[in-house]
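Lecture 7 notes. Example A: sequence first, then its structure tokens.
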Amino acid sequence: MARRIDIEKCIGCGKCEQSCIVGCISNNENGKRIIDENACVDCGACQLVCPIKCIDNF
């Protein structure tokens, strides 16, 4: 199961994007981060670095 970002809570810091080992995290039109769930390998690196803990297996 891929990780998902709660974009209502995301502050757009980019730490998750920097930590992603497969490059599946990008910005949406509002500067929030989104995960390409088809490319996510569910390693959890993004979830570990998120300062507000808005990433999970929703």
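Example B, a different protein, same format:
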Amino acid sequence: MFSYYLQLGLRSLRRNPVLTGLMVMAIGFGVAASMTTYSVFRATSRDPIPQKSSQLFNTQLDNWGPDKLEKGEPPQALSYKDATALLRAHKAKRQTITYPIGVSVIPDNAGRLPIREGAYATGADFFPMFDVPFLQGTGWTLEDDEKHASVVVIAKSLNDKLFDGGQSVGKQLNLDGHLYRITGVIEDWAPQPLFFDVPNTGGFDEGAKVYVPFNRAVDLKLPNAGNNSCVAEPGEGWDNYLRSECIWLSLWSELPTKAEADSYRQYIEGYAADQQRAGRFSWAPNIKVRDVMTWLDVQHVVPKESQVSLIVSLGFLVICLVNTIGLLLAKFMRRAPEIGVRRALGASRKDIYAQFLIEAGTIGVAGGVLGLILTGVGILGVGLVFPEPVARLATLDPVLIMLTLVVAIVASLIAAFYPTWRAAQVQPAWQLKSN
């Protein structure tokens, strides 16, 4: 019966091509608008490290005082003295300090120009904490951190430029005139949102190609290439900067269990209380230890534009469905005589429901195909509304293709429910008598 009802539906749609076209366009445009904005929202609100997001925690600590804070929220980053003190305490399974730097990669070939690359100064725990995927070798060790060793991890794209994609572990890399030993090569890794460096990237960035030990970067006085906030002038020189209350470092900790997370929070609060008793702080401890998704939510990583546009586009889809309901109602009720004859010949209301819902589903499929085409066009134009780092995340992948078709079909069936119900209520006797 399905094929029979499908044939009836297609024949009916061909009889009214203008009406059919209007319904397909209404479904297609409504679905395309909602799926285009959903693709952006999905990309910006996803869990960047789902396998461990509940175990990774960012630490915040108020070293400025309540009068310099917004809504009582501690600063986004930590000062050097606080970050290094908390790292030395080893109160977590793994911990790492991170800050962005800029380095010039000097090729061995003197005829080639230096390559400016984004980089991070970080710790050995960075790589196992964040499940960074390695293609060659491994990260450096905790012993390398303690020795302030000149070691480096590079990304695949840089390895391709410098070593033609070959084996480079153990080779030397010249960064700003200093030699580093390569310990590993990773994939071009940049989880989106870039959760471990939200203060400097807003959550969206192409990632780094070079990673060097934090202690070695401090020894070489490599400046912070990201945001730097100070409540007072730190004074001249690197040493004064390190001793200042300027905030520029991110501290992340891996805490696998709730008990460990609670214990760590208590330690951070105790540390802040110690600073208060020592006279450094004149205010009560104000600390936050948040997991990945909570941190992203508090930092408002999902652009407001994507949230607003998603709501507006869903409203537009609802308007399109209302129009489709009206068109389907007009179309189905014009066929009351046909329905009456079918009912008189023995068709049940269930049969009428099946026939007209299948016809509506056919409209949904056609609307879904049109919606897919328009969604593809919409994704190409996302850059006109959103910043480039966000716009490039919106893609028409198989999941979105399937979702677009499903939404179109479901939307058309929802729109057809009331007109179909009205059609099923047609009384055969009235139609036979009137005709």
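Note on Example B: Residues 94-235+247-254 form one domain. The mean pLDDT is 88.
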